[in-house]
Amino acid sequence: MGKKIFLLAMVSVFFACNTKVDAPVLSEGEADLSKIVAIGGDYLAGYEHGALSREGQQHSIPALFAQQTNEIYLQSGALGSVRTFKQPLMPLGQGFGFNSNKWESEFISPVTLGYKVDCKGVESLSPLKNQLNLTAQSAGMQQLVDGGYQNLAIPSAKMADITDPNFGLTYAQGNSNPFYGKIASDPGTSTVLQDALNLSPTFSLIWLGMEDIFGYASVGGFNKTIPSSTQFSADLDIMLAPLTSAGGKGAIANIPDLTSFPFYTLVAWNRAELDKNKADSLNDQYKLGGITHIDFKVGNNGFVLGDVSQPSGIRQMVAGEFITLKVPLDSMRCFLYGLLVNIIHDRYALDASEVQIINTAISEYNAVIKQKAEQYGLALVDMNTYFKTIQSGVNWNGVAFDSEFVSGGFFSLDGYHPNQNGYGLLTNEFIKAINAEYNAVIPTTTCPGCIGITFP
């Protein structure tokens, strides 16, 4: 009875109070959001499902952020202060991205989810890659000449590309990366940085270093290197000094861990599941070749990869090593790829030494990013920590999201880039960091119009 009286009293007190809830007063705080630019790679460009498309660009982090900053002006009634955010939008239906299998075609259209029959005759839902053979005259390759683009995030742009005029050569001029050449103010002469500075930006969104590290990781380190953190630091200084010299503010994001992405974790190193007959048969064939250190057992087994330090130059994979989502899965299912004769090619796998190189680079790059954020007074967006949160799962707009491939709702069908909902979540991390750094009150986005993966 006492508890009931207490609860009734609390309810009476609540309703006796003024129940009107005032909307927070929005503010840009100590930041000047009047001219926003974005400089980065895939993630700020809005790349999803293995390609850059108009739909992805319209729901990119910079576009969503710009929409939220305009809420500040709308609340104040200063409609004339509402600003557009100019992006170099791809033609409708003409999105394309880089094909990892260059021997098939140079480009692909956005990956879609559809039904596919595998080598065992089993039909199931699967990401479907659609090859494209584009020419310099294709609509998506045409240079956009009106200029003034604020989203200068370029797919596959590495740190050094931001100040390299050759990065702006067009596809017709032989550049295998056509994206900056489409929008460069002077192809072959201008740079991404200079085009950004020409806009006199007051606020910059920056996310660089991802392509330097994961460009190496995505091909198993095959014929690639990662620039040193010393070089990365020097290149960041070249960019950040002029962007902030006149009081410009901004936000810079750091780099998530390798294990944050299904692209590296979906195909487990020990996913070769064998019964006794298959295990015995494989062991017999290796022994016939004089190889005794390869030993298959009933259950899950490590795939075989090259290692010059081991007898016959091969060994089985161990925990902490990774196979990328580029690996030919049908060949693994039906033709003993990775088990006999054809070992896992270096371009599809990351061995322990390569994983160490990547982990060291991420740690060192993130230390540089943190130091530069402090030096130049930028908001630090800790994506390294946030991607771990995504792995554990988050709730947003009443929906659960995690990093599971397809079903998790965050990543797109390429297993590395987020889908539009994922970009909405990342936009909010930028907003939270900016609010904290600059005493701003920018509302987070609910990402209206954002979609995840479309099922057939």
What is the topology?
Layout: H1 2-16, E1 36-40, H2 42-45, H3 54-58, H4 61-76, E2 97-98, E3 107-117, E4 123-132, E5 151-153, H5 179-183, H6 192-197, E6 203-207, H7 210-217, H8 229-244, E7 249-253, H9 262-265, E8 272-274, H10 276-288, E9 299-301, E10 304-306, E11 314-316, E12 322-323, H11 329-334, E13 349-350, H12 352-376, E14 379-381, H13 383-392, E15 394-396, E16 399-401, H14 420-438
Parallel strand pairs: 1-5, 1-6, 6-7, 7-14
Antiparallel strand pairs: 2-3, 3-4, 8-9, 10-11, 12-13, 15-16
Structural commentary:
A hairpin with a 5-residue loop joins strand 3 (107-117) and strand 4 (123-132). This protein has two domains: 36-96 and 135-260 and 353-438, 3-Layer(aba) Sandwich (Rossmann fold), CATH 3.40.50; 272-351, no CATH class. Strands 5-1-6-7-14 form a five-stranded parallel beta sheet, sandwiched between helices. It has a three-stranded antiparallel beta sheet with strand order 2-3-4, with no helix packed on it. It has a two-stranded antiparallel sheet with strand order 8-9. The termini are far apart. Helix content is 33%, strand content 14%. It has 456 residues and is of the alpha/beta class. The chain has 14 helices and 16 strands. The protein is globular, with a radius of gyration of 25 Å. Helix 7 (210-217) packs antiparallel against helix 12. It has helices spanning 2-16, 42-45, 54-58, 61-76, 179-183, 192-197, 210-217, 229-244, 262-265, 276-288, 329-334, 352-376, 383-392, 420-438; strands at residues 36-40, 97-98, 107-117, 123-132, 151-153, 203-207, 249-253, 272-274, 299-301, 304-306, 314-316, 322-323, 349-350, 379-381, 394-396, 399-401.
